[in-house]
Amino acid sequence: MNKGVSQESTLLLDLASHVNRFSFDSSSYLSFRSDHTVLSNFLHFNRTGPKRTVSLGLNLGGPTFRFRNILNDFNRAVRFHCEKIPIGFASLRFGDGDGDGGRSNGDGVGDGIRVDECGNVENEGFRVNGAEGGRPKKVLILMSDTGGGHRASAEAIKAAFYEEFGDDYQVFVTDLWSDHTPWPFNQLPRSYSFLVKHGPLWRMTYYGTAPRVVHQSNFAATGTFIARFHKLVTRCYCPTTDLAKRAMKAGLQQSQIKIFGLPVRPSFVKPVRPKDELRRELGMDEDLPSVLLMGGGEGMGPIEATARALGDSLYDENIGAPVGQILVICGRNKKLANKLNSIDWKVPVQVKGFVTKMEECMGACDCIITKAGPGTIAEAMIRGLPIILNDYIAGQEAGNVPYVVENGCGKFSKSPKEIAKIVAEWFGPKAYELNQMSQNALRLARPDAVFKIVHDLHELVRQRSSLPEYSCTA
């Protein structure tokens, strides 16, 4: 079995393969040959200085000449449009072990790296996948800023590592699409934001790309790539029992699965400060019950229409005074925030952009109106907030709606007027329903999920010398 490692300043990847091997070089083009494949970066110079891009080439000869020309055109387009370094660590080769591997020493590992008798990869005296004598352990979290939930979960894990283990761990959060892919792929997060704000386009993209007929041959080609539940993961963290059952049906073993809940910011575990104190800091009325209205990191959904409906329903014409107030979180949607700030409201309204202390906003409110983002739902349950779901992203968030409704934690409605009516009743004659849903939410909450995850990861790192090394071709 040949070993391989990818390396930047430290070694981050340790994979094993029965047939192919990885080696790294930083000075050759990508070429496809009959005996090996090499993927590497090179320097491209323009007015702003050197820039790394990826190049593709094909060297099969004969009838493939025309296809090679197409790839050459692609290379030129990539070199012209690439804005960031798509591959931050050197190169990647799949070979049969006969070539030099681009500075390989013949055992499948580059110069300065060796593999000991226990299979631990070492470089310049320190061990890569064994104990690293006093050095801080490094954690790489790959995510994408497609919505606010992915980064929030990643930052929650990073914060929990620091709170629990201090400087023993260095945690890096990387947007894989934006930071390590060339144009047009590095535009995906920006495209996602546009698509989710236009529901029909997103539904067409999400469902339109689903295959209607799948040939058996496709499974042979894609069987080793990461899926929703990859059988070779060391650990799969599931937020609910239902998802754990799906993971087992997909082929995971019970020993690979942990049901801890969704990772949310460690600050949600801390005691909640009094509502009047939080409301005072946020510029809200200290005595009026309040509703939190938000649409995720992108500020999507019928927020303006819902806010207007709430402004009418929370104002009692008989007494000429408000019976509630509104806190609106617009996320990155600056246009929406400006529009709401320009309205002459009859009830107290506070408008915020993208906030980092969501625990304080939730702690200041009595219920929440939001789209069906899993992270927001988990945070609201920890704070004991009854939830009104007013929207969801087609496909990926649809299953969150019945979870909230069937567990008695909230309601679902897309009608701004219906939502405003529910809130007005909760702040009036149906206060008992508001209280019951709050208790149901607290019962399902898992505030310590992020700490359980990092402690489990810490234990895996501690035992990693005995962890199995899986083959990429299994």
Automatic annotation (TrEMBL):
GO terms for biological process: glycolipid biosynthetic process. Its main location: plastid. GO terms for cellular component: chloroplast membrane. It is found in: Plastid, Chloroplast membrane. Its EC number is 2.4.1.46. InterPro entries: Diacylglyc_glucosyltr_N, Glyco_trans_28_C, Glycosyltransf_28_UgtP. Gene3D superfamilies: Glycogen Phosphorylase B (3.40.50.2000). Keywords: Chloroplast, Glycosyltransferase, Membrane, Plastid, Transferase, Transit peptide. Residues 150-228, 229-264 form the Diacylglycerol glucosyltransferase N-terminal domain. It holds the Pfam family MGDG_synth. The keyword Ribonucleoprotein does not apply. It comes from the Eukaryota. GO terms for molecular function: 1,2-diacylglycerol 3-beta-galactosyltransferase activity. Residues 323-410 form the Glycosyl transferase family 28 C-terminal domain. Belongs to the glycosyltransferase 28 family. This is monogalactosyldiacylglycerol synthase.
